[in-house]
Write a structure and sequence with these properties.
The complex is a heterodimer of chains A (256) and B (310).
Chain A (H helix, E strand, L loop, with lengths): L7 E12 L2 E6 L11 E6 L3 E10 L2 E6 L3 H7 L6 E8 L9 E7 L3 H13 L3 E8 L8 H6 L3 E6 L6 E2 L2 H11 L4 E5 L2 H11 L6 E4 L18 H7 L13 E3 L7
Parallel strand pairs in A: 7-8, 7-11, 8-9, 9-10, 11-12
Antiparallel strand pairs in A: 1-2, 1-6, 2-5, 3-4, 3-6, 4-5, 12-13
Chain B lengths: L8 E3 L2 E3 L3 E3 L8 H9 L4 E3 L16 E4 L2 E4 L8 H18 L3 E5 L4 H12 L5 E5 L6 H4 L7 H14 L4 E5 L6 H10 L4 E4 L3 E3 L2 E2 L4 E2 L6 E4 L4 H12 L6 E4 L5 H9 L4 E4 L2 H5 L3 H16 L14
Parallel strand pairs in B: 3-4, 3-16, 4-7, 7-8, 8-9, 9-10, 10-15, 15-16
Antiparallel strand pairs in B: 1-2, 5-6, 6-14, 11-14, 12-13
Helix pairs in contact in B: 1-2, 2-3, 3-5, 5-6, 6-7, 7-8, 8-10
Classes of the chains: A alpha/beta (256), B alpha/beta (310).
């Protein structure tokens, strides 16, 4: 039996401010056997542990939104500070074809950045649609541009890009160039809208769900998707975000 | 798919397709998850322990896999008995269609509340109530577990026995000097079966952090490290009482399940194996057990029960 379930001590080497409440922590080493879409549990002894998607792995990077005690403490860490990391956990994204659309709602952009890095290394074409409430809530726009991804933006208040949800930017991007693969991470409502949008287009989408993850190893049941969502995306009942996911590949069609 | 007809077994008044039971605390939180595990091949399903009131459980870290299996301190997360009844009733309906019995696990901080929770949960008509007197992770709130002595274990059994006419199984702790005496005491108070064992209280320390890993500091040990302890406990109980035993602890394979039955178990609880394989652990363990029986020349599961005790 492996040691994979226990914590490995990583050190913060630098951090990058993404927006007023979000930072990316860059660590001293890559995480073994990780691929885009998977997550880790990050532990600060005495404070707590939370799940975070991997936003890069050369070396390991975690993008942290300051919303609770653990994420707040992570955002305060100085260079050299240790963080316990266990994982990688879950099923991530699989690149299909060579022409991808990545759709990120809010901090859903984070795992897509790791995926974009992988796709660009393979010289695939990557369009990124990012949505947020306001311009100030957007994440990693410049980083995606620096990878030579084509970036479209939608904000709910219209402070940057299209006014409205990210699905609006997605529709326009799809019109411009039909993708071989669609990969999305963000609020459940956004994922369901994307599922619906592509349902009759013979295109499988990969949706990364967020949930309350406690055990992280598929035992406690906390992260089960509701039956209503499972029915809507045609997932098996009792689908667990931590073990079966976080990425669900819809079965509506296949790539020609 | 392997033919597993040779695994059919009777337990109390119930006819099960196979002896594997989803252990309490693993994926027993919703009708859909319990249905999923039943579809994967569990012979019976035990729901997550339910108490008198809703509990959020402990903070993270709550569970980890390590070299010897799993350690957890989830902390009895549950919606409370009144909320649990419709969930169990729904689950019971779905499992009935599949021919899979439902065991409802209950816990409580006091004797009176054990009776009260048993009464409430009985409304959902589960096939059996499993009485969890041995959770190792709530001592700071509830005090010493009722499983610690013959007297307190017997008192809970009496309270639950009076509160319900459904069959009851008492879930015992391995963390006692004489588990057989405790089994005797609960059977004398009317327990129809024994579930043995719960997880073993344990601690993992992270040397770099210089502190226990679980937020609760201690947790319950399960998986391969627990198996030899569980085998010993089941063997001792089987030699002391005649009621059927749900042998639980570290069963990861079909051969493990055979060993548990040879120690005297009628049914075999499976929990930590789900960490490795997901619910499909049941499909695999059933196939392995069936194959083991064919290779070793056994026709029925009953033929191997208690073989190691001769």
């Amino acid at each position: 039996m492996s040691n994979k379930g226990l914590f490995t001590s990583f050190k913060v080497t630098k951090s990058r401010v993404e927006n007023a409440h979000t930072k990316t922590l860059i660590f001293n080493a890559p995480l073994k056997d990780a691929y885009p879409g998977q997550f880790v549990m990050a532990w600060l002894p005495g404070i707590g542990e939370k799940p975070f998607s991997i936003s890069g792995n050369d070396p390991l990077s975690l993008t942290i939104c300051d919303i609770g005690p653990v994420s707040h403490a992570l955002c305060q860490l100085a260079e050299g500070a240790p963080v316990g990391v266990r994982g990688p956990f879950g099923q991530g994204f699989t690149l299909l074809g060579k022409n991808h659309i990545l759709v990120g709602g809010g901090y859903g952009a984070a795992p897509l950045f790791y995926l974009a890095q992988q796709a660009r290394q393979l010289s695939h074409k990557v369009q990124v649609c990012l949505g947020a409430k306001t311009k100030a809530d957007l994440l990693m726009v410049q980083q995606f541009k620096d990878l030579s991804c084509q970036v479209s933006i939608a904000t709910e208040d219209g402070s940057l890009g299209e006014t409205g949800f990210v699905t609006k930017a997605l529709e326009m991007a799809t019109e411009a160039q039909y993708p071989t693969g669609v990969y999305a991470c963000g609020p459940t409502g956004m994922l369901l809208a994307i599922n619906q949008f592509y349902q009759n287009q013979q295109l499988s989408t990969q949706l990364s769900f967020e949930a309350l993850i406690r055990c992280g190893i598929g035992l406690c049941g906390s992260c089960e998707l509701t039956e209503a969502i499972c029915t809507e995306i045609n997932a098996p009942k009792g689908w667990l975000v931590c073990k079966d996911g976080p990425v669900f590949q819809t079965q509506t069609g296949s790539i020609a | 798919m392997t033919d597993t007809k040779n695994l059919a077994i009777n337990f109390l008044h119930l006819a099960l397709k196979n002896p594997l039971v989803l252990a309490s605390g693993i994926l027993g939180t919703s009708p859909s998850l319990m249905e999923r595990v039943a579809l994967a091949g569990a012979g019976a399903i035990t729901s997550k322990s339910c108490g008198p009131e809703a509990r959020a459980g402990h903070d993270n870290p709550v569970a980890l896999a390590w070299q010897g299996g799993v350690i957890n301190a989830i902390g009895l997360t549950n919606p409370g008995a009144d909320e649990e009844v419709p969930l169990l009733a729904e689950t019971k309906g779905r499992l009935s269609v599949l021919g899979v019995p439902l065991f409802a696990s209950i816990f409580a901080p006091t004797l009176e509340q054990f009776g009260e929770v048993a009464r409430i949960i009985s409304k959902a008509q589960p096939d059996l109530i499993e009485v969890n007197i041995s959770c190792p992770n709530v001592a700071s709130e509830f005090g010493t577990p009722f499983s610690a002595s013959e007297k307190s274990a017997a008192e809970v059994t009496r309270a639950v026995r009076r509160a319900t006419s459904l069959p009851i199984s008492i879930k015992l702790s391995p963390n006692v000097p004489n588990i057989a005496a405790i089994a005797r005491a609960v059977v004398d108070e009317g327990a129809d079966a024994i579930t043995a064992v719960n997880t073993m209280p344990a601690m993992l320390i992270d040397a770099y952090a210089g502190m226990p890993i679980l937020k609760n500091r201690t947790g319950g040990l399960s998986g391969p490290a627990l198996k030899p302890i569980a085998l010993r406990c089941v063997a001792e109980i089987a030699q002391q009482v005649a009621v059927p035993i749900v042998g639980t602890g570290g069963v990861m394979s079909g051969v493990d399940a055979a060993e548990m039955i040879m120690a005297g178990a009628t049914l075999v609880g499976v929990g930590s194996a789900v960490w490795q394989d997901g619910p499909q652990a049941f499909t695999r363990i059933n196939a392995e057990l069936s194959q083991f029986m064919q290779i070793a020349g056994y026709q029925k599961v009953e033929e191997i029960r208690g073989n190691a005790l001769r």
